[in-house]
Amino acid sequence: MTEMESKMLYDQRPKIIPESLTFGMMMCSAVRYALGRMTYITGTTCDFITPLVPYLDMSALQNINKDITDHAEMNQLGMDIDRVKWLKLRSEIQKEIAFRKG
Q1: pLDDT (tens digit, 9 = 90+) per residue, 20-51?
Q2: With left for phi above 0 and alpha for psi between -120 and 50, is residue 69 left, alpha or beta?
């Protein structure tokens, strides 16, 4: 493959647009996959999503907030270290929701 062909393939890759509806849905999916698991994916998911909270649409924020809250009420957030991460993410999401509602 030539350098030009390689560049053309690179330019054709899908772009991630944080403000898109699809992005929010994928973040909800990641949270739902990781909630309650006791693996590295929990921390990775929380660490990935936390700085992106301002870019999520309101629907994604509300869904993730509800998912974390529901799992917390059932004591299903995983290990203690995971619980801390989930609650921190939920706190950031709740701040963003409050900010947007004014």
Answers
A1: 778 999 999 999 999 999 999 999 999 999 99
A2: alpha
Report the SS3 class of residue 85. Answer: helix
Instruction: Tell me the whole-structure pTM to 2 decimals.
Output: 0.83
For the chain, what are the domain ranges?
38-102
- Ramachandran region, residue 79 (left: φ > 0; alpha: ψ -120 to 50; beta: rest): beta
Question: What single letter denotes the amino acid at residue 96?
Answer: E
C-alpha atoms less than 13 angstroms from C-alpha of 75 in its C-beta half-sphere: 0
CB atoms within 10 A of CB 102: 4
